[in-house]
Specification:
alpha+beta, Arc Repressor Mutant, subunit A, 3-stranded antiparallel beta sheet, 5 helices, 3 strands
Length: 99
């Protein structure tokens, strides 16, 4: 007999945000974006000692988690913090650590 466990929406969201925050480069990117309000991927790449393709992968992970959003302005994408999800993540972490 197998056990069945259903996670709450809050648990799922917290895990999603935690996974996205699981690399120091992503933490740096979020801090950088919060200070800059918005910027292009190249601006972020110039601040990190990693390849542009790696920065792109980190941006994708943060975007998939909903922590950042991008505005396409061909041929570039301008990134910024997704304020709604950012506030939600902070509230979830606060609630989690107060338990």
């Amino acid at each position: 007999m197998s056990k069945s466990l259903t996670y709450t929406e809050k648990e799922e969201k917290l895990a999603q945000y935690s996974k996205a925050l699981g690399h120091p480069a992503r933490i740096f990117i979020l801090n950088f974006l919060e200070k800059q309000c918005s910027c292009f991927a190249g601006d972020i790449s110039s601040q990190l000692p990693i390849a542009n393709s790696t920065v792109s992968q980190h941006l994708t992970a943060l975007k998939e988690a909903g922590l950042i959003q991008g505005t396409i302005n061909p041929p570039t994408i301008k990134y910024c913090i997704n304020k709604t999800n950012w506030e939600e993540a902070k509230a979830l972490y606060k609630e989690f650590f107060e338990v």
